[in-house]
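Late entry, adenosine-5'-triphosphate complex.
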Amino acid sequence: MAVAEQQPLATPPKAAEARVPTVIVDDVHIVYKVYGAGTGKGSATAALSRLLLRRGSPNVRRVHAVRGVSFTAYRGEAIGIIGSNGSGKSTILRAIAGLLPPESGKIYTDGQPSLLGVNAALMNDLTGATNVMLGGLAMGMTQEEVRERYQGIVDFSGINEKGDFISLPMRTYSSGMAARLRFSIAAAKNHDVLMIDEALATGDRAFQRRSEARIRELRKEAGTVFLVSHNNTSIRDTCDRVVWLEKGELLMDGPTDEVIKAYEKHTK
Ligand SMILES: Nc1ncnc2c1ncn2[C@@H]1O[C@H](COP(=O)(O)OP(=O)(O)OP(=O)(O)O)[C@@H](O)[C@H]1O
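Prediction complete; structure with ligand written out below:
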């Protein structure tokens, strides 16, 4: 009986590298409501009579800050968000962080996104050292972990380069020093999704380099990083993809070089 020639088993095609989505922004609109934006109707009596008569405030102004924005971010990406002043960059980050509800549309996130903004809350009357401890605990580290990383955080921030500033209250820091400390605390932890809003702009060049290197590390450690910045060099050095917002709309989303080139042409 003839034996069928054994065919070598075809090697299955190597599974394509699975891209894991971390943030999905789906047709999101965000509207701020500004109360008391008109004149003359702000008195307590007027407010009371509105309550009693169940009439809405006549002075609510709506600012439609984000208009139908959609994109998906994947694990391991660093995405720059650019656009002129007031284009909605900070607003979309705050919404991804869960701090602002969208008027319509949906935002899905994998893990808890951390927003590191220029206004991230640290206590001005407490020393830098206490803020490092509190900030670490607030990010979910144990006391032991914060103690282990304390020196690394202080060294990274460079706060003590010109004397023992870490033991002084934060209100004695310049805005650049405070921003450096905030970034150093946040960067001490690996985040699923880390969003950085202009935090690098205030540091000097040496600090910016350290931060950029740390952002690259955070990406390797499988997180997703968003960076809002007006500094195209920072964006070029850290991000492989850029989302360009203008007047609340997404104008372009693509490889860094392409988008920055188009943006520079637009702003010239
Ligand atoms: N708390 C708020 N209340 C009302 N309107 C707001 C508020 N915050 C922002 N806006 C408005 O929303 C729009 C988008 O603002 P946003 O701060 O997101 O812009 P941005 O792109 O981050 O600007 P910039 O580059 O100047 O930081 C602007 O028109 C702004 O006036």
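Strands lie at 21-34, 61-74, 78-82, 104-109, 113-116, 193-197, 224-228, 241-246, 249-255. Will revisit in the morning.
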